Amino acid sequence: MIDLYAAGTSNGMRARIALEECGLPYTLHPVDIAKGEHKTPQFLAMNPNGQIPVIVDRDGPGGKPLTLSQSTAILVYAAEKSGKFMPKDPAVRAAMQPALMSASTDVTPVFGAYFGAKNKEPNSPVTQMFKDRVRALFQVWDGTFASRKFCAGDEVSIADFSLYAGYARIKGAAPDAVEGMPNLSRWGEAMAARPAIQRALKF
Ligand SMILES: N[C@@H](CCC(=O)N[C@@H](CS)C(=O)NCC(=O)O)C(=O)O
Fold this sequence. Notes:
This protein is 58% helix and 9% strand. The protein contains eight helices and four strands, in the order E-H-E-H-E-E-H-H-H-H-H-H. The protein is globular, with a radius of gyration of 17 Å. The two termini are 19 Å apart. Glutathione is lined by residues 9, 11, 33, 38, 50-53, 70-72. Glutathione (GSH) binds at residues 9, 11, 33, 38, 50-53, 70-72.
């Protein structure tokens, strides 16, 4: 059994999508960031950065407990533990890596910066700059999905789960940042139809 400590942010959703899609049994422990529940001594013992998500797998490698932070590390761990969603073909697997990295390390931080700027100064040039960056990243994905069904080809992989966590969050909070991108939208609808994704997004 896995304990998942998370909130309904893109990083939290990424970790929960991983567990749901990989079919790994888990217990969700919602963490209220507004109340500072991620900064308690108990939480900091699991992740000294004081950030969600964190998992504790009581049945980790070698049968020993494992504590893991970083949403993408959790995604990779879940895929390896379950043997699912990590392409077996070395060429597809290699193509999946940049897609995964871009989804996790370009998209999420840039829209995080956009939301931060928008909350402080909605009409400032900095806010517009981050919005343009978000749109530019998703425009590239829109181009990718013109010829590929999923991030790395014909099969769903953990790159799709990572990207969807970011896409769902931004589509909910700032839909104009991803509008006018039909291929991206079609991919988003296919991902949203997956029962495991639907369960994972209900925080
Ligand atoms: N790179 C980390 C980022 C984790 C992160 O930024 N978590 C946010 C919520 S989405 C958080 O806990 N923020 C509270 C804080 O930093 O104080 C990951 O992918 O898990």
